[in-house]
Design a protein that fits this description.
heterodimer; A: mainly alpha; B: about 0% strand
């Protein structure tokens, strides 16, 4: 996103700094993948719906085809011992990646000022999910309402 | 499962998340626990395939869709990945001035933190399935520490994990 800011705002002057900031802020609160929302928003500002659509396809289609090829390969490689050994450690690594992603989501809040909020909300989400089988949607809705009324500082 | 239903379920997962990764608990809840159209192992492979590929995290939905319903499922997963991004356009039109309100920002922060807890909760059963030997436990722990303690990308974790698996296979 930083590279796009330098290119669109400073070098090409396609979009004002203020408009860029609004798109950036809204992309952060748009459900789904923030980067995709950001690219759709910037492209819509520049070229309307067509721009948004083309930007999203350009950003995702090549990567999606690679994912599809990799997934298809898994089906083919199921009977190959060496490949399955590599896949077994790969999926174990995926567990580590997910835990790292969870840590990195909470990391900016793990400080003196916001640590209580972070600890409480992460622990409650864990307890409600593992202990009381609340669905993820219910937990996220409860968290949103909690954050709205119990304000987490900047 | 009907392709359209698959698209709606994956879309619901994406719409309930504020970064690609946080859709994972919803996908697991719906596909593995509720509808039984996906196994934990397939979900782990989907996550790994999504992380190997450069691009946004939500790409694993393409792989999930493929496991559930072949190429039409992959297309459903792809469409579910990009659909929520279009929500920014009405938001730009009507909500731009509210995005910086403290209460809205606080609510988003709380949702992000809850998503972190949910991601840990989702990892528990997946870890029970995939990290059962000393080698796979070490790879899972090593991957976590590598990503948390260094600035390197998941690409290196993927390469390293695959190499460890191959060495383990040929040596032992």
């Amino acid at each position: 996103m930083a590279a796009l800011q330098s290119e669109f705002v400073r070098n090409r002057r396609w979009i004002s700094r203020e408009k860029y900031a609004v798109v950036y802020a809204l992309a952060r609160i748009t459900p789904g993948t923030n980067l995709l929302a950001f690219c759709a928003g910037i492209s819509w500002e520049l070229l309307g719906w067509t721009g948004a659509f083309v930007a999203l396809l350009g950003l995702t289609v090549p990567a999606a085809l690679i994912v599809l090829a990799l997934t298809g390969s898994y089906e083919v490689l199921k009977s190959n011992g060496a490949a399955m050994a590599a896949i077994a450690t790969l999926v174990a690594a995926a567990v580590g990646m997910m835990l790292a992603a969870a840590f990195q989501l909470a990391e900016p809040y793990l400080n003196k000022r916001r640590g209580v909020y972070a600890g409480t909300i992460v622990a409650l989400a864990l307890i409600l999910s593992l202990g009381f089988s609340f669905s993820p949607i219910q937990i996220l809705a409860l968290a949103g309402a909690t954050g709205y009324f119990w304000q987490i500082p900047e | 499962m009907n392709v359209f239903a698959l698209y709606l379920l994956l879309c619901k997962a994406m719409i309930s998340s504020f970064s690609g990764a946080t859709s994972l608990p919803v996908v697991r809840h719906e596909m593995v626990e509720h509808y039984h159209v996906l196994t934990d192992r397939q979900l782990e492979v989907a996550v790994a395939a999504g992380r190997i590929t450069p691009g946004p995290f939500g790409l694993y939905l393409v792989s999930v869709g493929y496991f559930v319903d072949g190429v039409p499922g992959a297309i459903a997963g792809f469409l579910a990945l990009i659909t929520p991004a279009f929500l920014i356009i009405p938001m730009l039109r009507y909500l731009g001035r509210h995005a910086e309100k403290p209460r809205i920002k606080s609510a988003i922060r709380a949702v992000t933190l809850a998503a972190s807890g949910l991601l840990i909760a989702t990892t528990v059963p997946m870890a029970q399935d995939s990290a059962r030997t000393a080698l796979t436990i070490a790879v899972a722990a090593g991957s976590f520490l590598f990503l948390v303690l260094t600035d390197r990308t998941t690409f290196w974790v993927v390469i390293g994990a695959a190499l460890v698996g191959l060495i383990g296979y040929f040596v032992f």
